[in-house]
Amino acid sequence: MTGAERRALFTTMLRVRRFEERCVELYSAGTIHGFLHLCIGEEAVAAGVLAALGPEDGVVSTYREHGHALARGIPMESLFAEMFGRTTGCSGGRGGSMHLFDASRRFYGGNAIVAGGIPVAVGLALADRLRGRDRVTACLFGDGAFAEGEFHESINLAALWRLPLVFLCENNRYAMGTALARSHAETDLALRAGSYGVRSWAADGMDAVAVQEATELAADTARAGAGPCFLELRTYRFRAHSMYDADRYRDRTELEAWRARDPVELAAAALAADGLLDDAGRKELEEAVGREIDDAVRAAGAAPLEPVEDLTRFVTTATEDGS
Amino acid sequence: MTVAEFTMPALGADMTEGTVVEWLVSPGDEIRRGDVIAAVDTEKAVIDVECFESGVLGDILVDVGQKVPVGTPLAVIATDDAAAVPPSGASSPIPASEPARPGSPPSPERPATAVEPRVRSPLVRLRAAEAGIDLRRVPATGPGGRITQSDLDRVLQPPTLPHRISATPYARRLAAERGVDLATIQGSGRRGLVRARDLPRAAPAATRSPRPAAHADPRHATAQLMARSKREIPHYYLGAQVDLTDALDALRAHNRAIPVPDRVLPAALLLRAVALGLRAVPELNGHWIDDGFRPGDGVHLGVAVSLRGGGLAVPVLRDADALGLDALMRALADAGGRARAGHLRSSEVSGATATVTNLGELGVDTVVGVIHPPQVALIGIGAVRTRPWVVDGAVVPRAVVDISLAADHRASDGATGSRLLREIGRVLGQPDLLVGDDQVGDDEVGDDEDRRPR
Amino acid sequence: MTATAGIRTVTFREAFREGLREALATDERVFLMGEDVGRYGGCFAVSQGLLEEFGEERVRDTPLSESAFVGAGIGAALGGTRPIVEIMTVNFALLALDQIVNNAATLRHMSGGQFSVPLVLRIPTGPGRQLGAQHSHTLEGWFAHVPGLRVVAPATHADARGMLAAALVDPDPVLIFEQIGLYGVRGELSVDAGPVDLDGAAVRQRGTDVSVVAYGGTLAPALDAAAELAAEGVSAEVVDLRALRPLDSSTVLESVSRTHRLVVVDNAWRSGGPGAEVVARVAELALDQLDAPVERVGAVEVPVPYPRHLEEAALPSASQVAAAARRAVG
Fold it and tell me: So where are chain B's domains?
């Protein structure tokens, strides 16, 4: 991997980290409402997976998808606007934090039912197969989804039909507050996925480079017609499940051990060691990201709210124009 | 140096307020952005709260244990970086823009102004307009200071109880269009339901008059009401003879002490006895509506008054059981006089929970009455006559009156009716209960707790 | 060609199959998938012969994974194809409720109108004969509750033949509820029968004294009742709702405004069922047209029992409809 690619991964992670931190602030101030799930600690998954995909590929995500959306290239301003409920949001303000969509980037959300997006991803891959298109669908979900029937039904179906699909399990070890070992008899998820006749392996979800390389291999395999692949990306979230919880289900020492492998700082250190990023460069990058966020928040906050008269839009085609 | 506020954060989608359970820093401490500086109880959990400014903690504005709404300043932070502080000291980092168009719901925090009452129900507006009530003067108890139907009811006293005619909606519509009074139509449907086919085909020309007022043709109104009563109500009848001698003696003593124009007639004494009896037997005080008995919200006695032109007027003495004897007499005289003069207001002839017919002055010994729907009881009173009566084994002349009860067998049985007659007799046998001061009898019902000043 | 020469007799099953065959033949984006739709020929033999005719890619047998293959239908629709997904019966559709309610019905909205889900779900529904509680449900009303879905219930051979084509043209998810009890019923169909509108109720029989509103599996008993009533001199108008969402209130209101009496017939339980919605709309919009209490004929509030006599007692019948109409006419 080139230095430029590694720097790009780092930049993405830094943008995600600072974006999420600003979300905390905006939520606390009552500017963002509803459920807000942050991916601080999991930035390497977002950066690595999305860097491995082409613009023609499809992405299906979860409710912890800010990082995925940013790494997919959806502008910050439209993400903030979405969370502020403004018409310039990437879903027109109708979705909120958990329902980020962008048709132009084949970003299919933003699914807030655990495992609910997985069957949809199977269908997107099926459509590509039926229409003879040379593209893959990346399906991101968490370890919690691995316990759902929809996941098992879907991976079997995708394997049966050898669909161009990559299952990306962002394993942060907790389904809300329930640890993997407290909900699964066998916690080696890649091992279990392999039982469906799918190529499965695990990668270090705190290392963006490793994530990107693993995803590229999986996507190439699926694209080549060898059927779906399953990747378990082992990572950790540094903050609460939703915006705030009392975090009584995790051991502080466990959290500190994972924090020692902070993906952003890990990447920064590696870049510095290879002479690809010095203090001045980091500072310059931080300032650029800070400005991007400030500008995005300002623009999103100035965007209009949808008039109540338009309430019944976007239900069916018949209600589309809302006039 | 700039000053920023550290506010009660929103710590979840459902959080509206929180309690500071611990301050982890003290005024004067240096704090950095991201530091946990307080713990807040959201009622779901105790959450460590971080600050988003760096600087020196100034005054703590909210003490431990205090519950405050989200957004309330908890402490002041003197920041060392003016750029980190939002301009104009606003706690919201972005301007909260309002929807561009009207129609957005008003902020729930904004108190209702005295100028413009908050009314959501079109029915409330309509009823208020019909009754000529200024909504600004109606005390509101609804959510967000809204005026509810009940609020209006409290002002629009007394509630009018519509005489319910059973008719299909379509028949009602046709009747209105054709100017037909549904009360004149015999329904052919179940339980007398008036249907479209029961109406005259064409509209009689220019008969589209408003619903006739109760007093416009008293004979007609009485005919309707009594026919309905006999059609629908399974009556049962009970009677009792009551010795009035002691009560009349007490009444005479009472009357001696007051000016002649204020003196009380035996009719008022009997009325008061009936009122107290009904209070003690609430099963006979109320209405039969929609196949069920609804107890009255007080003892409102209808007093049948014969009119010179024929027919009846039945003015209502509201809360008759709460009126002392003198007050009851005044009310009776007033209502009777105006009834005969045809000056009763519609509100004075509606809402009775039971009716009393006293035909004693016409020389009648016994009354066997017809209930006024939807009431369930009618108490009939005959002439007070001196009769031979056995007292302590000796036949002596006593003042005796025949009191009868006609009651709706759907709502009560004979045993209940007997209790009422017994209770009336008991009260009449203890004239102190009737003639004393206005509060007499109150201690027999209710609960003192309820009558504490509030 | 004479008029009679243009008419043939077909079963509902054949009418549905004809619609499917036409859809697969005319649009290469269309494919059919579901449990046993291919080699088996369809649980109710609707898709018999289609695998042989169109091949495994276009007629796809799925595992018993309702959630996965319904969700795959949603994804495939998003991906530019026109999937027809058969769920074997409405009873099993409950296993795919998440996909139908949380995805098919909401994606357009949550994405601010960026995505359409042109999915067609074919769902056999209603009682069969002595199939027991778990295989006799009538639940289309549940789906009709959800904005974002279109719910239709063909009750005639022409609708069975023609609703699919219209559903495939619709950019939104369409649920076609096929009556299990009707599959073998024969009726006339024009040789050139084709697409029909999805919207709008239809007056299947004109009448003046009482409006009998039915749909799907209750149209036949409603028409039988109307014939019985006609012999007694009562003229019943029979309205076939055809679609439960969007519900065509205006045809119902127009009929009630002429007859002033309403009987609603529904195989579903009365509490909260589609019939209740019809009654509510009449109460909202045309109360003063009613000259008799509304009569409802629906399933008795009990899981459908197995024994024949109890099953019959639990479900609406023509004689119950006629009796209700007589009460209304009084």
Answer: 2-156, 160-216, 234-442
